[in-house]
Amino acid sequence: MLKTQYISRKQELPLNGDSTGLFLQIIISIAVFIFAITLSGVLSINTMLYNWNQSILGSLTVQIMPVNDINKEKATAQTLAYQEKAIEFLQNVDGIIKVTPLNDNQLKNLIQPWLGDGVNISNLPIPRIIDVKLAPDADLNFVELAQKLSIASPQASLDNHKLWLSKLIDFADGLKLIAMTVLLLVIAITSGAIFYTTRMSLGLHRNIIEILHTMGAKDTYVAQQYGKRMAFLGFCGGILGLLFAIPAIFFIGSLATQIEGGIISEASLGFSDWGIIFSLPLFSMFIAMYTAYHTVKRTLKKML
């Protein structure tokens, strides 16, 4: 009971008027701002990779190359015949649950952005596309499947997306590695700023701390005073940094949605991701409190 009253009484250290407090609060707010934006990028990339795995890795694309013939109607009919043979073959393959040929309008919408509005697509030999959905537990030999498909329909070719998707995943993983490095650097720099600020404050209040030790105060008591003060500065700095970071995250997200192609649009933040981002002030509070507390205890052992 006496110990609780001793610790909870009015602080003898004039930490509230410490000139280093404002500097540290600005450093923490900047760190949280950078941390929040970088963390939102990491979480968005995780969502993007998950969506790719769900929507792309569970599908195949079969392309039917158009038949070359002077007679346009005859060439179209032969191309459609090869498409029907490919569809018939794919529907009898174990592990394939859905086979959907794209219609003319869907094909035109795919090609139109590449050729422009001034080109009459109906006069061009357009490959036919078949979208193939795989069962979640499908275990297919894609090399063997491609060979059998080419026998059933000589104009057909198989694309399982793994080649180009693996490159995209490697690129996304590289971005995540860079982002995680930035996060670690932000934590290290912030902890270093708290460490040196706390050491500076201890030097300024050395005489008061010596008096407190003479009166019976322990190192733990002084460390608790600094821990509470730094926790408050860390939380306030975290709130300020988060207030600036949220509009920046929405602005970057709006720019990403303007990119055509649908790849970046797969990157989004869910409720759990926003929960992590909004918890950053608590994280900065903990880092500030923990760093200050242990800095004081180690420094006092050497000072006194």
Fold and architecture overview:
- Helices cover 69% and strands 8% of the residues.
- It has helices at residues 2-8, 20-55, 72-91, 104-115, 142-152, 162-204, 206-214, 219-257, 271-278, 280-303; strands at residues 59-64, 96-101, 128-134, 156-159.
- A 4-stranded antiparallel sheet has the order 2-3-1-4, with helices on one face.
- The chain is elongated and about 105 Å long.
- The chain starts with a helix and ends with a helix.
- The model is unreliable at 1-9 (pLDDT under 50).
Total number of β-strand segments?
4
Low-confidence stretches: 1-9
Please give the count of helices.
10
Structural class: alpha+beta
Q: Give the percentage of residues in beta strands.
A: 5-15%
* Overall morphology: elongated
Work out the count of structural domains: 2
Order of H and E elements:
HHEHEHEHEHHHHH
**Strand line-up across the major sheet:** 2-3-1-4
Helix content: 55-70%
Major sheet? 4 strands, antiparallel
Characterize the quaternary organization of these chains.
single chain
What's the rounded overall pLDDT mean? 78
First-to-last CA distance: 28 Å
Q: Taking Cα atoms only, what radius of gyration do you get, to the nearest Å?
A: 32 Å
